[in-house]
């Protein structure tokens, strides 16, 4: 009764094609953005911002990248970690080579470099499909990490291989490194994620996004109706890697403050994959739900185990965490193969009728 | 030019200078390839019969090895430990079929693949929650000292592994060829619906396949465990079976063996002769890149079924 289209008339094509056509949706998004931009920085403690909100936002961005590739274009990839590492190291090299450069420019350039690397590793997708491709993307994961570990040029010949991210400014405000305040880091990451999400949402509504989905649903049929698989697949790889690269750069610069290849191992690739499965393949909303779930679950489980008086069993907690995570993934796939985002869809359908039965 | 010379010619010169050493490295690589093949075999069995790309095979290897070494350490004789672990793997197969595969029947392949990643996490967690995450030594009484044939050192353990693997493949081939169950498995692999319409119970067949894959995993786990000690890394080593698998072709048992051999030999030779030039530890990625390059030429792998696509 409250949440429905009735009475909201569109008088222009622009209004009819808006991303959020319902007044309620617009109000809801405005409230969420207001919470994220105003309430959380004011109310949340530094601990909350740095251990929950920052990883959540950055993982959501990485999930967005993978979702474009896997959820929209249907190319299963296990190389997310490698692409994130590429973004982190590209940003590090750029930031140290040109210390005066604005961090926004560094981010965009490192995203572009990662996109180029992504296209390179996406080339096999023109011939290799399905599970074969998934294994082939493992080559990106292992090769890229090896490269950043072994070639000293990438770490500026530092002896330990672990390097701290320097402080860099965006529009004159320090947003990375140890001198930046957590709030500044949070707001900067939030702005980046907001803008890139908006871009992704619109991209999936444009011709390029539609060609991705056609390729996903059946690539031969798509080819026959005139979609170029080469362009569609490679743009998907490029855009996806661009997002993952920026996520990796933010992870190293804004979150951990250390640039190291080991932070982006195969486990990260799987974690991001889980986010998009649990959140929902081929949805934008799902990335946030999935990322929130995967980031919060370990914290919740740890606290629950502590509450039960199991302080000494740290190793046990991590094993239990793995078990519960595995069981939940299977559970979600059985109950709702389309992810949490589908639950929201179903909820919306129900809301249209509420409180009447039909 | 100097770099090209270092990468292209210097290692080849190294090979030509010491052909015996090269043969030794090659044989060592082939033998470790046998170990990859053991893991890849489990993948192929399940993929053929149910179309499920079972990512959990590596974890099943670790899981079985953990139980086996756990029973051994508790003072159980080896044959009994083997049987007990076998029982565990059978229970696991039933549980997987009942709780994961059956509710997910008719879902797209990618959903089932994701579900097996879930199983992977669950098994890794469960195995280590029960048996702890320390490295455990596993001694099954296989001699490790090398034997010398025509001036070439061959590790006796590797030879033993090769024999075990060969036996296992032979037994599996006989089982598939000559038993009614094996025939049912092949029928399901060929065509699910046709198999069902002649009265082959699909869920039973899937359980059997998972049991067989569990047994293969157990053997692989014992061999890997005896070689490297039973530890969490085993499930990562199993990832290396993936390139072997796709190089050979996802649906072919001989493909898994050949793929394993190619990957094992290729990565050892690359590591020994090219590793230093490229910066070392290229074993980490060589297998994947080799498989990727190979697939560019033959997208369905060496012996995989030709992929025919229609609209």
Description:
The complex is a heterodimer of chains A (358) and B (311). Chain A has 358 residues and is mostly helical. In chain A, 70% of the residues lie in helices and 2% in strands. In chain A, the strands form 2 sheets. In chain A, strands 1-4 form a two-stranded antiparallel ribbon. In chain A, strands 2-3 form a two-stranded antiparallel ribbon. In chain A, helix 3 crosses helix 11. Chain A is globular. Chain B is mainly alpha-helical and 311 residues long. Chain B has helices spanning 2-8, 10-17, 19-50, 57-73, 78-101, 109-131, 156-178, 180-190, 192-197, 202-228, 233-237, 241-248, 253-278, 283-297, and strands at residues 146-149, 152-155. Chain B has a two-stranded antiparallel sheet. The longest helix of chain B is centred in the first third of the chain and has 32 residues, at 19-50. Chain B is globular, with a radius of gyration of 20 Å.
Summarize the structure.
With 358 residues, chain A is mainly α. Chain A is built from 14 helices and four strands. Chain B contains 14 helices and two strands.
User: What is the CATH architecture term of the domain at 21-263 in chain A?
Assistant: Orthogonal Bundle
| N-to-C series of helices and strands of chain B | HHHHHHEEHHHHHHHH
Shape, principal axes of CA atoms of chain A: globular
Uncertain runs of chain B with pLDDT below 50, 5 residues or more?
none
Relative helix content of chain B: over 70%
Largest interface: A-B, 46 and 52 residues
Sheet bearing the most strands of chain A, described? 2 strands, antiparallel
Provide the CATH topology of chain B.
Answer: ABC transporter involved in vitamin B12 uptake, BtuC
CATH architectural label of chain B: Orthogonal Bundle
Q: For the terminal residues of chain B, how far apart are their CA atoms? A: 49 Å
Largest sheet of chain B: 2 strands, antiparallel
Given helix and strand content, the structural type of chain A is: mainly alpha
The domain count of chain B comes to 1
Count of alpha and pi helical runs of chain B: 14
